[in-house]
């Protein structure tokens, strides 16, 4: 999906309401409002520890953390605050960046910019650690996105990101070709499937209420839910997609 298509999503109030209907893991007060409805606290703490380990090896005070595909910026802010880092969030959606900016800290530790994975506009070697939650896997040119991450990271800086098997990018091979070392691969499929199934089952069970409240505008969301659950004889996307996270270190 093109980043600009997210302008519609971020500008659509239905999404905010749907996020509150999620299962416990997604409506956990520690994560609700940080993301688009895919984030569980366990994932957040795993990436926090990965980034903490990577930043501990660096020397600078207030290192720069990059959130690639930052959306409204909540995850990056949560991580940067706990890491004592400055934050730069990059996203292709102008609407997302406007929303992220509207809640940016007045102290100036956070910056949100419209950009592309392959062209962030950041200075070479300026980033201590980068992460991407459910975003980088959408890169139209994954090799160019990795080349850009490699360019902006300082030597030995890390890039942590989640990806799905629905996109057949050979991330490990591309990463090695781009000058990264693959440090860790975590399998997230089982938990992701359970949480997504619960989320879409709840959404589907509320379809009459949602239709009464939002009319036809909720139909695209319900159609996604039907395909995730495999309703109407379709193949269930949830049962066929796998989710992983990768931790790369810049060589
Ligand atoms: C599923 S959302 C995740 C957003 C955020 N990381 C979160 O978890 O809430 C994917 C994000 O990637 C952004 N995106 C997609 N393709 C992009 C690209 N080529 N360059 C920059 N951002 C992109 C979208 O605009 C969207 O905000």
Explain what the structure shows.
The protein is of the alpha/beta class. It has two domains: 5-11 and 38-189 and 242-250, Vaccinia Virus protein VP39 (Rossmann fold, 3-Layer(aba) Sandwich), CATH 3.40.50; 191-237, no CATH class. The chain contains twelve helices and seven strands. It has helices at 5-10, 13-20, 24-27, 41-56, 74-83, 94-102, 142-152, 171-177, 189-205, 207-214, 219-229, 237-240; strands at residues 64-68, 86-91, 110-114, 127-132, 153-164, 180-187, 243-250. The chain has a seven-stranded mixed sheet, with helices on both faces. Strand 1 (64-68), helix 5 and strand 2 form a beta-alpha-beta unit. Helix 4 packs across helix 5 (74-83) and helix 9 (189-205) crosses helix 11. The longest helix has 17 residues, at 189-205. The model has no long low-confidence stretch (mean pLDDT 93). It binds S-adenosylmethionine. S-adenosylmethionine (SAM) is lined by residues 3, 6, 35-36, 39, 69-71, 75, 91-93, 96, 116-117, 133-135, 138-139.
Q: Detail the poorly predicted runs.
A: none
- Would you count the extended β strands for me? 7
Which structural category do the helix and sheet elements fall into?
A: alpha/beta
Order of helices and strands: HHHHEHEHEEHEHEHHHHE
- Gyration radius, to the nearest Å? 18 Å
Bound molecules: S-adenosylmethionine
What's the CATH architecture of the largest domain? Answer: 3-Layer(aba) Sandwich
Q: How much strand content do the residues show? A: 15-25%
CATH H-level superfamily title of the largest domain: Vaccinia Virus protein VP39
- CATH top level class name of the largest domain: Alpha Beta
Number of domains: 2
């Amino acid at each position: 999906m093109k980043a600009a298509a997210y302008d519609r999503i971020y500008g659509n109030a239905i999404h905010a309401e749907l996020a509150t209907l999620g299962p416990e893991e997604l409506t956990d007060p520690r994560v609700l409002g940080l993301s688009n409805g895919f984030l569980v606290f366990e994932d957040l703490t795993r990436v926090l520890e990965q980034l903490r380990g990577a930043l501990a090896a660096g020397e600078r005070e207030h290192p720069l953390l990059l959130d690639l595909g930052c959306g409204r910026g909540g995850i990056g802010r949560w991580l940067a605050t706990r890491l004592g880092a400055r934050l730069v969030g990059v996203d292709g959606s102008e609407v997302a960046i406007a929303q992220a900016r509207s809640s940016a800290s007045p102290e100036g530790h956070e910056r949100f910019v419209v950009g592309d994975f392959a062209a962030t506009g950041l200075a070479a070697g300026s980033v201590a650690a980068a992460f991407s939650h459910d975003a980088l896997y959408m890169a139209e040119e994954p090799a160019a996105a990795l080349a850009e991450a490699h360019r902006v990271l300082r030597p030995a800086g890390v890039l942590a990101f989640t990806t799905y098997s629905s996109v057949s990018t050979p991330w490990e091979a591309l990463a090695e070709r781009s000058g990264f070392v693959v440090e860790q691969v975590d399998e997230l499929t089982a938990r992701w499937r359970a949480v997504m199934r619960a989320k879409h089952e709840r959404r589907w069970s509320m379809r009459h209420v949602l239709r009464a409240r939002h009319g036809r505008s909720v139909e695209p969301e319900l159609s996604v839910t039907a395909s995730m659950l495999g309703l109407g004889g379709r193949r269930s996307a949830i049962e066929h997609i796998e989710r992983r996270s990768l931790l790369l270190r810049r060589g």
